[in-house]
Amino acid sequence: MMKPQVSIIMGSTSDMPIMQEAAKILNQFKIPFEINALSAHRVPEQVMEFAKNAHTRGIKVIIAGAGGAAHLPGVVAALTPLPVVGVPCRSSISIDGWDSLLSIVQMPPGIPVATVGLDGGQNAGILAVQIIAAGNEPLLNEVLQFKANLKSKILKANEELKQHKFEYRVG
């Protein structure tokens, strides 16, 4: 039976459309993960238990997404020795995501949260893979291939852009 290496948590299931992008990346790289809703405000005892014990269960990275006041990533980071990747999410109660972004990125000294951009679930997944790959050469090679594929997509896109003809286009 596989044990999760990454834990994806979110303050509310309304964050799932963003957080599933992290899950897709982990799935692509064949990294076992778990995914749960945990609210720093509604179930603080469960959050505390989760954060204090995640490392004892074999979790290597926690991806925590939240909207609004977005305390989940910071609370978890305060209670775990593991790296936490924060995903600020736009939500029905957020101020266009700014409150979430600032709540996650502005952590006090000693409590780091690696924060990706607003609604950046995909980048959170990639960062988690890169963290795990630092100690795993086969996975590191997969990350290198992933990055090479990103480069080839841009090269291909530029070739396709040449098809758009304009009278005053230079180059």
Number of domains: 1
Helix count?
Answer: 6
> What is the first-to-last residue Cα distance?
56 Å
Number of strands: 5
Question: The CATH topology, please?
Answer: Rossmann fold
**CATH-derived architecture:** 3-Layer(aba) Sandwich
Beta-sheet strand percentage? Answer: 5-15%
Low-confidence segments, given as residue ranges, are: none
Q: Class by helix and strand content?
A: alpha/beta
Mean pLDDT: 96
Helix proportion range: 40-55%
- Rg from Cα: 18 Å
Q: How is the main sheet built? A: 5 strands, parallel
The CATH class assignment is Alpha Beta
- Which H/E pattern describes the elements? EHEHEHEHEHH
Q: State the strand order across the main sheet.
A: 2-1-3-4-5
Net shape: globular
Give a quick precis of the structure:
The chain is of the alpha/beta class and 171 residues long. It has 6 helices and 5 strands. The radius of gyration is 18 Å and the shape is globular.
Written account of the structure:
The chain has one domain: Rossmann fold. It has 6 helices and 5 strands. A 5-stranded parallel sheet has the order 2-1-3-4-5, sandwiched between helices. α1 packs parallel to α5 (121-133), α2 packs across α3 and α5 (121-133) crosses α6. It starts with 5 loop residues before the first strand and ends in a 10-residue tail after the last helix. The protein has 171 residues and is an alpha/beta fold. The protein has helices at residues 16-28, 44-53, 72-79, 98-105, 121-133, 137-161; strands at residues 6-10, 33-37, 61-67, 84-89, 114-115. α3 links the parallel β3 and β4.
